[in-house]
TrEMBL record:
InterPro entries: RecG_C_sf, Schlafen_AlbA_2_dom, Schlafen_AlbA_2_dom_sf
UniProt-recorded name of the protein: MloB
Native source organism of the sequence: Bifidobacterium vespertilionis
Schlafen AlbA-2 domain segment(s): 17-124
Top-rank taxon: Bacteria
Pfam families: HATPase_c_4 (PF13749), SLFN_AlbA_2 (PF04326)
Gene3D superfamilies listed in its UniProt record: 3.30.565.60, Schlafen, AAA domain (3.30.950.30)
Length: 475
């Protein structure tokens, strides 16, 4: 089987290795058992591709592995029970193989010789008991894996989904129709109809990412991003209210741009030049909104609501988090992994687990109040406030100190009196005040002094509570 031209391969090379893509040099051969383990891992992760004949630095070197691809396909089926298929690409005289690995059957993860495998960075390891339990307990596809009603010819699919937007955001040229179909099948945006290979179902994932209008898809039409600007403090008095009812790939950047346009602006003068400074960092706004899109609970009704006021921005998504808010910085967790992966591929959000961290870094760089995470009955709200140290109450200061400690620990460092003074933009003469704040945060059980500095006030440094054994603490 041959890929239509080299476009498909170049599309793979334009990105990086991900949950569904693995590159291998395999200049001469590739170990058969190792291949089985990789196929097992990819299948359990939702399916994906292995590309043979490409080096770690994304150079096409060619491969002589698997000279009889049909035989290897049969071998994989006999040993794993899944039907993988090879595609052969002639890249300027170099042979490159792309192995397509299907997802495992729901509730029946793929195993090799009685063992379940998962990828961890560049290596393979036995699947964790927690992940295996998740796969075994799968009873049905996730909300985003379900199809929207109706099988359609490709021309109608393109009229409903902005396929060109995917290539625009990934930095690739728009390929021919066969390559578009192959890419959207690989991304799980569409599914080919079993009764007619010329027809396709649009999956909810494809709709929520690429829909030209969410109103064309009843199952996701209420998942739009809504941006509101309050005239005062009352949520009933708004000077701006707009619903961005297109797929996130089309609506996200417009919505973020609009939010920034609604944020209050201050004028500053530096070296005789006038500069406009917005009250909230654009990076922080983008990451918080992206985080709300990724972590919404599709079992709950509603979309992403962003409310801009004179002193704060509140971002609300449906659903409550499955991890405590006190662990938002250190825990790597995504409720909707397929959506998160798609948004990352289109460069709309940060790599896994780094969005909140990056938002915090930008907020701390501006010396303003830390985000407040509030879990309600059926929704979660993140509030950004522009207040500085003197504007914060005791609760806000403790929250900022704790999140600073989490961010320092995530970077391999510690909270110290000096680092916290820098975070708040305070002079050295405020050391005693900062020490009192640290003591209050310790009293709350949110941080503790590193035992290596026990007995020393001058050298004291602190870590978040989760770095030692003990129960969780909620803010």
């Amino acid at each position: 089987m041959t890929v239509s031209g080299i476009d498909g391969l170049l599309q793979f090379l334009s990105g990086s290795e991900s949950r569904r893509l693995e590159f291998k040099t395999a200049a001469r051969q590739f170990d058969s058992d190792k291949l089985m383990r990789y196929c097992c891992a990819l299948s359990c992760e939702g399916g994906g591709e292995m590309v043979f004949g490409v080096s770690d630095d994304r150079r096409i070197v060619g491969t002589q592995a698997f000279p009889d691809t049909a035989r290897t396909e049969r071998d994989i089926y006999n040993r794993l029970g899944i039907r993988c298929t090879f595609e052969t690409v002639d890249a300027d005289g170099r042979r490159v193989l792309i192995l397509h690995v299907p997802r495992s059957i729901v509730g029946h993860p793929t195993s090799f010789e009685g063992q379940y495998w998962m990828r961890n960075g560049e290596s393979l390891e036995f699947m964790s008991p927690e992940r295996l339990r998740e796969l075994l307990n799968e009873a049905a596809p996730s909300f985003l894996d379900e199809n929207e009603p109706g099988a359609r010819p490709w021309g109608e699919v393109v009229s409903l989904l902005a396929v060109e937007r995917y290539y625009e955001l990934t930095g690739a040229r728009l390929p021919n129709e066969d390559s578009q179909i192959r890419d959207l099948l690989r991304l799980h945006f569409v599914e080919r109809a079993a009764f007619d290979p010329t027809l396709f179902y649009i999956r909810r994932l494809g709709a929520i990412v690429l829909a030209r209008s969410l109103r064309d898809f009843p199952d996701v039409e209420h998942r739009a991003i809504r941006v509101m600007r309050l005239r005062g403090r009352s949520v009933t008095d708004m000077s701006f209210d707009r619903v961005y009812d297109r797929g996130y790939a089309l609506a996200f950047f417009d919505a973020v741009e609009q939010i920034n346009a609604l944020v209050p602006v201050r004028e500053t003068f530096e070296d005789g030049l006038r500069r406009e400074l917005r009250d909230f960092p654009e990076v922080a706004i983008r990451e918080i909104v992206a985080n709300a899109c990724v972590h919404q609970d599709f079992r709950e009704h509603g979309g992403i609501d962003v409310t801009v006021g004179d002193h704060a921005i509140a971002v609300t998504n449906p659903g409550v988090p499955e991890i405590p808010v006190s662990r938002f910085v250190d825990e790597v967790y995504e409720r909707n992994e397929s959506l998160a992966e798609a948004l990352r591929m289109m460069r709309m959000c940060e790599k896994r687990g780094s969005g909140i961290d990056r938002a915090l870094e930008n907020i701390e760089g501006r010396r303003i109040d830390a985000p407040e995470f509030v879990v309600k009955t059926r929704s979660t709200t993140v509030t950004l406030r522009k207040g500085r140290f003197d504007d914060m109450g005791a609760k806000e200061r403790v929250n900022a100190a704790y999140l600073h400690c989490c961010l320092q620990a995530a970077k391999g460092g510690f909270l110290t009196n000096a680092s916290l003074r820098v975070r708040f933009g305070l002079a050295k003469g405020k050391s005693a005040l900062v020490s009192q704040l640290i003591a209050s945060t310790v009293e709350r059980g949110l941080i503790f002094q590193d035992p290596a500095t026990a007995g020393s006030r001058r050298m004291a440094r602190y870590l978040p509570f989760y770095y030692r054994d003990g129960g969780d603490v909620r803010l």
